[in-house]
Amino acid sequence: MTYNAHLLDGIIIFAEVVSAGSFTRAADNTGHSTSYISKEIARLEERLGTRLLNRTTRSQHLTAEGRLYYQQCQQIIADVSNAQNALMGQQQQPAGTLKVSCPVSFGMAQMRGIFSDFLQYYPQVGLEIDFNNLKVDIVADGFDVVIRATPQLEDSSLISRRVMRSRAVTLAAPSYLQQYGTPQRPEELAEHHCITYSGLKTPRLWHYRNQYGKDIQVEVNSRVSSNSSEMEISLCLAGHGIVCMPSFLFTNEISSGRLIELFTDYQPMVIDIYLIYPSRKHMSAKVRCFIDFVAGRLAQRTGI
């Protein structure tokens, strides 16, 4: 179809003139002057190359072409009005498909029940969930909401809402500590077997802050490197090495004594969980409800 910027110009005014029965009443109904209404109809007829209305000082009548055009215009206006009403209804009632990006480990550890409950609570909303540890482009990739876990959120024009705080914990199984001894300071990790997460930019560099607030960076001895948090935890439980991971990945492994936390006299490195979305303006009901729902659930799980 050839582009025509003026294709719909004058249609609303023309339909109002026919419906109102006169230029004067159409002007009153639309808030325009009579001369404006007259010029709009004249421009429309000139663009179409045909007369739509036969008019005198006392009356107006549709021509045959005008009657046909009016019928089509009514349908166009009704279709646009229906589309607008449908969209406005979606803005008020949560409906449609919501596209969400979420880190794999966080999603499996914290979001499965939340996703399920959200679907139960909002039956008109569907979810397209992308479990991905890569940094996605929320706008270019068409996501409604992106979940990120990070010690520091980079500056961005996007809107972010912190919904949970966690901390990095250094853990080892009792069997490992019995065999290799318990390190007292992070610097001693260079002499131990560590299990690192290969998805980080510098997986062998672990960060700590001592009781005096001094930041410490330690290069650890990585016996195993994996891009799976579940594999890291499994190998750690089996006594193959020490891990440093977000506390949100663990359920009862620490409280039950299956894993022992090290360096508890050091200040915890905080990991914040954010919901990121493009804009607060014209936010759809499905996005607004999802953000509020997730924020309410995760706020109860903060562990620092």
Q: Categorize the overall geometry.
A: rod-shaped
Helix content: 25-40%
Task: Give the mean pLDDT.
Answer: 88
Q: How far is the N terminus from the C terminus? A: 60 Å
Q: What is the overall number of helices?
A: 8
Q: Indicate the low-confidence ranges by residue numbers.
A: none
Strand coverage percent: 15-25%
What class would the helix/strand composition place it in? Answer: alpha/beta
Largest sheet: number of strands, sense, barrel closure: 7 strands, mixed
The topology string of helices and strands comes to HHHEEHEHEEEHEEEEHEEEH
Compute the CA-based radius of gyration: 32 Å
Strand segment tally: 13
What does this structure look like?
- This protein is α/β, with parallel strands linked by helices and 304 residues long.
- The chain has helices at 11-20, 23-30, 34-48, 64-92, 104-121, 174-180, 229-237, 285-298, and strands at 53-55, 60-62, 96-102, 125-131, 145-150, 159-172, 194-197, 205-209, 215-219, 222-226, 243-246, 260-262, 270-277.
- Strands 3, 4, 5, 6, 11, 12 and 13 form a seven-stranded mixed β-sheet that branches. A two-stranded antiparallel sheet has the order 1-2. Strands 7-10 form a two-stranded parallel ribbon.
- Strand 3 (96-102), helix 5 and strand 4 form a beta-alpha-beta unit.
